[in-house]
Model the fold of this input.
Amino acid sequence: MINRFNLKQNKIEIIGILLIITAVLFVYRGLLDGKVIASNDVGTNDLLYFHAPTLYQYGQHLKGGELLYWIPEIYSGFPVFAEGQCGFLYPVNIALYYFFDFISAMNFFLILHSILFGVGIFYFVRKITLESYPAIPAGIAAALCGSLLIGHTRHLGIYAIISLSPYLLIFIERFLEKKRLLDCFQFGGILGLFLLIGHPQFAFISGFISGLYFILRVIFEKLSKKKITKISLELSYKKILLFVASSLVIALIVGLPQILSTAELFEYNIRNQELGPAFTGFGSLPFNGILTFLTPMYWGNPGNLTFKMQYVFLFWEWYHYVGISIFIFAIIGLFNYRKNRFVQIFFIIGITSYILALGENFPLYRIFSAFPIIRSFRFPNRWLIGTELCILILSGFGAMSVKQFIEYFMNRKIKPNIQKHPASKKQIFTKIHPIKRKEFSHIVFVILSSSVVLIDILLTTGAHVATTNKSNFYSQPGSVKAIKNGDSGARCFSFYSSEYHSYIYSKTGWEGDNSNYRLTTALLPPNLGAYFKVNLIKGYESLVPGYIENVWSSPFKEGLIDRSIQISREKLEFSPGFYRLLKLWNVPYVTSPTPISGMTVVWDSASIYLNKMNGVFPRAWVVNKVLLVPGNSDEQLAELLLDTTINLKTTAIGTTELITLPAGSQSGDARIINSENHSLKISAKTKGMLVISDTWYPRWKARVNGIEVQVYRVNSMMRGIILPKENSTIEMWYDSGHLRSLIALSFLTLFLIPIVSVFYLVKNRKK
Done:
């Protein structure tokens, strides 16, 4: 009888998983054809202008047997591994980008994690309701939920963390049921994966929600006079604390390589400073935000240009629609509040998450302001993922009540028909065996509930999942070809690119003709140069060191280049300071929607021009004098860099410490012998200071004639190396330090997790 029951349960699980997979593949069918997600939010889309270019290079380096730490094509060089949000150590990324091209890898990533989220919710709801059928609609809704399909296809790290969140709850329940301390490997492993995925805010939110669930679960079980499930919680607080501590240690070991690297970069970031509510409270959810669970287009749809809020990207942050039917199921589930502790627990978590999402409208989120890093998080509305998760889980209890009603209705007693006519359909139905009748009612429930949920979400959310040909975003424009033909190592500044993207977007939104976006690549959107292997000095990064912001700007702060731009709009003529700075940073090329005064047009197409400027500095040269900025002031540094009486070919501006050059120093040229992502070799004839217009970062080390020397930060963000004598050979390399050892330890820990799981599986079968 037990085997028959298990076989039946396995069939239900297979049916549920197949329905989830089918639903995801149907919605993402365009990705299976090699298309890409259409640019919803074309101006600042993380997927197009952040993940895709860097992940492309990441995949290329993986295939070459190397982990990517540094990209020279962003901001004159950027520590992309330390930035972390692309999850270079996430095992799923390693597998996908090693075996597939980056378009296929991104598409498989989205499909896989949607399925993982749906299956995770399905198993967890099944576990706490002790029924499989009510878990199926919850699983389908999770796989197609708004925070994935619409909200965070723009950010793969967030997408992955959301998808793995239910497994934290599953492993908590497994620990409480089996009382095995070694279950900390699975729980800690998932937390560690969150750290490797590289989005600290969502990692914290998901970890906090699971921790709150653990605490409430234990409290409710300890206070209850009767069991709330078939298991009995006979655990000492000592064992619980040991489980939690062990899990955190495992998570720390797994995530340590990424934690240390990101912490090093964070030290130089604006978020390391004191930030006010204007920053941390940005994106606070309005009180009526709950209505987006009923109608996600409550404030309009940016896809067709009807969004009414000031900042269009808030639409994606607030999109958490899981279907009206699921919302109704969750409301029905709340009627079990008095008699079911799980309903009480997830109601508390859902309300708490919603209050935290209100941000400055109800500033409960400030309770985290005492914690480093956490206090720098923006978009409090991201806590809304906790409410979405709870609605999905509570819907299982509501679906269970509906299933029981259908079961009662189909099994009610029917009076026999006395007429001599052939048996009616009712009489035939009453003759069916009660067990068969019950199974039939379950099938009816699954078909009806799954169909309602699927149709609901497909019509409301699925209709807005747009895919387009990859050539619309990733085809190499003629401007790139012209740059490579002229000088493959030269840098390019993309002027007016954000405004032009907004203009294109304003024509059709992201639900219209996406082929128009192909034109925006000619202006080289931020970071896309990394895909085309063009040194684009602008970039779209959210964890930018202050010394980079001072020059190139960031999403949070205007830079020196921006401040120096003064335009005569009649013929697009810039201020002398703008030309001076571009020349200093070896930027001969500028893309723009019109020709630029003082430059030569070397390529044009569809009202987009590639302009070239003569007289730019080489990438490396030697100076014989160093001026120290008084008081290390950003404003005084800017004045010195823009001071035309200072010859920057012979003088460098020191920014951190007094630098003494060797006697008899002379200015001169330097020749780059070899240049790779993680290494650089240069020769110089004169002694003095070698200045390299690549971004300074503490991980870059140098040897002069075989002797290791200090790398100074000069001209705000460039590298400076003292040359004690003539005819020197300089070797630079990106020093990963102990990262390789830490990565090996991290992966060894992850490798132990399935071994422990298999050990317990074999052990239990023997019993």
User: Anything to note?
Assistant: The chain has 28 helices and 18 strands. The radius of gyration is 30 Å.
